[in-house]
Every structure is written in C-alpha cells, then in structure tokens.
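ASSEMBLY PREDICTION REQUEST
Request ID: AP-0331
Submitted by: J.K., bench scientist
Number of chains: two
Total residues: 516
Priority: normal
Notes: Please return the full assembly, not individual chains.
Input sequences:
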Amino acid sequence: MNVHRTTATASRVLRQLRHDPRSIALMLLVPCVMLFLLRYVFDGSPGTFNSIGASLLGIFPLITMFLVTSIATLRERTTGTLERLLAMPMAKADLIGGYALAFGALAIIQSALATGLALWALDLNVTGSAWLLLLVALLDALLGTALGLFVSAFAASEFQAVQFMPAVIFPQLLLCGLFTPRDRMQPVLEAISNVLPMSYAVDGMNEVLHHTDLTATYIRDALIVAGCAALVLALGAATLRRRTP
Amino acid sequence: MNKPTGPRDTTAREPVTAATPAVHATGLTVVRGPHTVLRGIDFTVPRGRITGLLGPSGCGKSTLMRALVGTQAKVTGTLTVLGRPAGHPTLRSRVGYVTQAPSVYLDLTIRQNLDYFAAILLPGRAHADRRRADVTRVLTDVDLTTHENALAGNLSGGQLSRVSLAVALLGTPELLVLDEPTVGLDPVLRRDLWTLFHHLAATNGTTLLISSHVMDEAERCDRLLLMRDGEILAEDTPDALRTRTRTDTVEQAFLHLVDEANAAHPTRSPS
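STATUS: Completed
Returned structure:
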C-alpha cells in the first residue's frame, strides 16, 4: 500500500467526475429534492417527517454511492483499465482506498447539503448534534461504496449492475425500520433485519434524533456500520484478480 | 492463483545479461474454460530486438501475451520473463503492456490519463518533475502533443490506441508487449510507429514483442514467431523463413508452413 498511489487514484476518480457535471448535480441535488418533497408530503403530520427524514439522511448516501461505485468499477473492469493497473505496480488496497477516498469526499458534500437543508430549511427536529448525523451518513456512504465494489464483480454489464440495486438495497430498505419499528415485524424478518447493516444506520440516526448526547447505542451502531463497510471492502478486494481466465 | 510451475528458483537467480533471452518458455500451456488455448509451446524472445508474433485471429496470440505479463490464469509450464517467473511483482514496472482494445479512461484528457498512470509507476511528489518530463516524452513519441488536452472519449480509434501505447511507454520498460498496436492506423502512422519501435530497440535496448495478423508487418521484425491453433509453427528471422520455405514473402512462407502442418495432422481443421 502506498499513500501517493491511493491519493493519485482518488484525484483521478474525482477528475473523471469533473468531466461529468450532470452526474455530480444529480448526486448532490436529488437527495435534497426528495427531502423537500417528503417534507410537504407529510405537511399535516410533521412527526412522521421527523422520523422518516432523519433515517433517509442515512439511506441516501448509501444508495447513491452504491450506484456510482458499482458502475465506476464495472467500467474499470470492462474497459481493461483494471487489468492495466493490476499489471502495474499497484496494490489492490491502493485502488480501493482511492475509490473510498474520492466517493467519501463526495458523500461528505452530499450529506452536508442534505442535512443542512433538513435541519435549517425544513425544520427537522433533532435533539442531538448534527455532526453525529453527518458521521453516520459518511459511514453509510462508505458502506455503499463497499457494496457497489463487491457486486460489480458479479455484474457482466452496466445493465446488470443497476439491477443489483433493487436486489441488494431494497430488502434492507424494507427491513431497516423505516416503515415500521423493527421489533414489531414478524420475528423471522426481525432476525434478518438484525444482520443487515442498514438497520444499524437507521438506528443510529434515530439515536441522534431522540438523545441530546452520545449514547452507547449510537456508538455501537456506528461501529457496526463501519465494521460492515470494512468487511465488504475486504471482500471487494478479493474480487479484484490480477490473473483472470 | 495459478503460476507457471517448474524450476523457477534456478532461473530467478540466473544473472541477467545480454546473452540470456528476455523471455523463455518451455511447455507453456494455457487453459481457458473448456479450451486449451496454448498447447505446451516452447519459444524464446531475444533481448533488444523486435520479435513479431504472427498468426490468424484466435490462434492464441493475446493469451500468450497475457501469460507473459501475468494477467492470465491457468498457466502451466515454465515462463521466465527478464530472469523472473512471469507475473513476478518486480516485473510490473519493467514490462509495458498494451492490450488490443485501448485501455484508457475515456472521461479524462490524454494528459490526465498519462499523469495518472505515471503517478502509479513512479509515485510521490519528489518525482513530479521526472513524471512531467516522462509524460511529455511519450506524448512526443506517439505524436499526440497537440492533442494533450483533448478528452480521450472524443479521439479517433487510431489516436486512442496511440494513447494506450503512450501509457505503456511511460517509465521506459525493458520489455514492451504490444497486442496489435498498429491495427486501424493509416500507412503513415504505421510507418512512424515502426520507426519508433526500431528506435526503442536500438537506443534503449528495449525488447519488443509485437503481435499482428497482418503479414506485411512481419518484414519489419528482427525475428518471428509464427503461431497457429495454439502452437508455434516456426521461430526464425524473416529471411531464414523465406529461404527455408523457398518463398518470396513471409505470408507465403506462413501458408506453406500451415499446409505442411495440415499434412502432418490431417485431423485438426485449420480454422
């Protein structure tokens, strides 16, 4: 692992994005528009917006980064640049670290915009600190990057990669406690939701929503999301092969 | 991961001199899915020379090159590259490789592409000046200096393959493995590139292995490996091949050798 190779990769990924301003705009603005929409959908019941809005602040970065990373790494695999890089003195960790760094930076901007909008313009009532919301959002973004990298190994085309989004993300979305508290689900589903990382992301957001200070549950949730991201990144690294059939 | 097996410890310690070949293969076999793409072939690539790898499409040229640079799985036999087993980590900065399809980032400019790959080969801020000089040198080599700020996605096919070649020239590798580098280029560019290849071999002592299915390019090589159906048909200089087969061109020599091989193995179709 070499820091300079990692940062060179991160700045290369950001440079590629800079040539694609429309994608950047979509990544940054869509979550804000959704929150705005949600605020006025629940105009009559601000309590609902409060609980759903906070959870969504954690879910948006996960979904966006999942999509962006799975397509970006798939392109890297199919255009031969991955083979070229791995035939060069490049460690797999440099490549993955570079992607995580670049998309992490983007996720910070995205989360800051969405959180700022929700807290100050849409009157989202959060008892705890906005920084704690941001931290979970960032960890979620890394988790999304990790998942995207991992599934790109199983997609032969961009068409398939996009289909992995509903397959990997939607079940988590349904079971994470966004629609109904997890302890009121059918016990088997609750057990499944206990092993899905997005559940802990939403739990963490709810902790910040209801508590003034840093709770033990929040720390546990953040560590679980971070741990999952690290685990999936390692699995993703295992799918990058120098020698291919 | 499958690595070439065999007495590689002895070859790894062998002193690297001009006398030892850049590439030496014995019993090289590659299996891809249900097919045996290379069938236990033996060959050598001499140092500081241009070796042409010729044969019809699908005969295993690209697989042979991928085995050389260490990106091909299921390789058996002995394959020594610059005194090391193929795919050895120390070879990654000593071997330049250009795939058939240009492998560069289409959403970056030419210079941004080269800057990035240069930073992978020679990382660190301390080498920024050397990297810049290197990028400028390879841009001149492939005659793309005037286009350096053009987006790779907007280039023509020929320009794009030259960007891909420029990436392989970064860091002045000792061995250049080029998979059909002149396909789709106009005659003037092809001539210029062959001049560049000869210049690299003559001044830097670079070893070049260049594949092609265009037989007239064979005449420009110092040495030829003629391939067909996963096997080496002949390994010699163009002159010797023509003399041996009593033909006027390498193309005729190749066809003569194919007919000879078909007569020897009548069961195998020449597809």
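REVIEWER COMMENTS: Chain A touches chain B at residues 2, 4-5, 8-9, 12, 15-16, 19-20, 79-81, 83-90, 241-245 (CB under 8 Å).
SIGN-OFF: pending second reviewer
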